[in-house]
Recover the amino acids of this structure.
């Protein structure tokens, strides 16, 4: 299936869908680092005041323990809700009929290697190594793992454009193939078009994704681990 | 034999098949290709593991050309 790029005419180019979000800066390594830091800062800004309030209440009057506990619960729940929002981007959607799903899976299978096919069969996610990190592509979103051992996850909500009538009827395999082809054509453009729903620790996200999908996160992290040890 | 396929509700549909030395089949494939681009589809070809390329003209030597819909942030 591979074709030499030079015989196909125009060279690599920007994903045309980025025109619809022309105001967004193009995502690159530096921007991802900044976004990650911003998410960490936001989490700290949510957690620290509640923990501080809990400590202050206990210092003022130990009888305020129930209120202090409520503050601690808030400090715990808010980051969990963000992580849940991240996990939701790879939540499976409604299936089409058996025939279309099988045909779509056949095409998707042709686009990826044996390991990725097996991982998709087990988890519903397709692993794709990129320059920005390792991606796990789902039907309506993608997870990007970066950093040492894939410690940080970025959860992107992105799908076949719902304004096109045909999009609603696509089998799940085709929805993934759409995202995969766009990602392969222009990884930075793909991340620019997609909406970032969450960025944070992989362990936090792992607890929120459905159990069958968790091995995909582990495999993606292991991929990054091998990469970083290969560099050293 | 090269193929032009469109991802749709059936899984995918084969719109055209051609070999570069068959001008009639090539012309039919080019017409089908342009019609789908006019409908808003984007044409992609695989250029190796992990790489794809968007094309605006039908690459006659590509074994498989895939038509996809645009994507958008959810």
């Amino acid at each position: 299936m591979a074709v030499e790029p030079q015989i196909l005419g125009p060279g690599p180019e920007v994903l045309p869908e980025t025109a619809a979000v022309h105001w967004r800066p193009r995502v690159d390594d530096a921007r991802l680092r900044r976004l990650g830091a911003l998410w960490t800062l936001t989490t700290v800004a949510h957690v620290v005041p509640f923990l501080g309030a809990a400590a202050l209440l206990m210092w003022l009057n130990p009888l305020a323990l129930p209120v202090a506990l409520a503050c601690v619960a808030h400090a715990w729940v808010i980051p969990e809700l963000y992580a849940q929002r991240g996990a939701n981007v790879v939540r499976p959607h409604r299936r089409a009929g058996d025939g279309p799903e099988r045909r779509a899976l056949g095409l998707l299978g042709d686009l990826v290697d044996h390991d990725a096919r097996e991982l998709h069969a087990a988890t519903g996610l397709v692993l794709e190594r990129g320059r920005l990190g390792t991606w796990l592509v789902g039907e309506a979103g993608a997870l990007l793992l970066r950093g040492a051992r894939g410690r940080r996850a970025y959860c992107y909500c992105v799908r076949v454009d719902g304004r096109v009538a045909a999009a609603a009827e696509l089998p799940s395999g085709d929805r993934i193939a759409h995202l995969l082809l766009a990602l392969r054509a222009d990884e930075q453009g793909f991340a620019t078009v997609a909406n970032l729903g969450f960025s944070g620790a992989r362990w936090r996200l792992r607890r929120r994704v459905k159990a069958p999908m968790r091995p995909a996160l582990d495999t993606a992290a292991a991929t990054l681990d091998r990469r970083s040890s290969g560099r050293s | 034999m090269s193929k032009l396929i469109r991802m749709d509700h059936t899984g995918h549909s084969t719109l055209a098949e051609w070999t570069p030395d068959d001008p009639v089949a090539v012309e039919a494939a080019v017409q089908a290709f342009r019609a789908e681009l006019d409908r808003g589809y984007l044409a992609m070809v695989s250029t190796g593991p992990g790489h794809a390329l968007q094309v605006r003209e039908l690459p006659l030597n590509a074994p498989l050309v895939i038509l996809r819909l645009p994507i958008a942030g959810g």
About this structure: The radius of gyration of chain A is 20 Å. The helical segments of chain A are 29-60, 65-88, 98-111, 114-123, 172-185, 187-193, 202-208, 214-231. Chain A has a mean pLDDT of 89. The beta strands of chain A are 126-129, 134-137, 141-146, 152-160, 195-201.
